[in-house]
């Protein structure tokens, strides 16, 4: 897996996606993902949205985050643009805050705390890396914020650990638009 590109690596991308909390949809973890005049239901962190993001708080940061990179599981979903990079079985993401690889892609096996990107549950069939605590990392502000597939239980979208999650069919539908999205703003 190639490392996410810096903000300067994705010039000229004009679309902005906006995430707005919408607890009336069924809980503090639900919101609306607005893109190109359309609104889609999304999930945010179990603690809702916060301006004071901290490691492990289960909240999604209220922030404007550049879109850095997109990854996909080739055996499960299609992705045609060069924006999307194929996830390999050896791909992981370090989430150990006091290590040099914190908030970076790593090759598995990895000796400290990390996520395996080839998950059996399909949550990471598409991953869009947002620039939260990546280009300017600070311990304690929380690990990476991804946009990824949502988890459902009994037909209800479940909260994330702080990421933004969309229904798999929504993520597949907007996958061709991600290369045009310059940032995601969470309000």
What labels would you give this structure?
1 helix; 4% helix; 187 residues; mainly beta; 3-stranded antiparallel beta sheet
Question: Can you give me a brief rundown of this structure?
Answer:
With 187 residues, the protein is mainly beta. The strands form 4 sheets. The chain has an 8-stranded mixed beta barrel. Strands 9-8-10 form a 3-stranded antiparallel sheet, with no helix packed on it.
Describe this structure in words.
- The protein is mainly beta.
- 4% of the residues lie in helices and 36% in strands.
- β13 and β14 (156-157) form a beta hairpin.
What is the total domain count?
1
CATH level-3 fold name: L,D-transpeptidase catalytic domain-like
Strand proportion, as a percent range, falls in: 35-45%
Uncertain regions spanning at least 5 consecutive residues: none
Number of DSSP strands? 16
Determine the N-to-C terminus distance: 31 Å
Helix/sheet category:
mainly beta
Q: Give average pLDDT, whole number.
A: 93
Secondary structure topology:
Blueprint: E1 15-21, E2 30-35, E3 38-43, E4 49-50, E5 60-61, E6 64-72, E7 84-86, E8 91-94, E9 105-107, E10 114-116, E11 126-130, E12 145-149, E13 152-153, E14 156-157, E15 164-166, H1 168-174, E16 181-186
Parallel strand pairs: 1-16, 4-5, 6-7, 12-15
Antiparallel strand pairs: 1-2, 2-3, 3-15, 6-11, 6-16, 8-9, 8-10, 11-12, 13-14
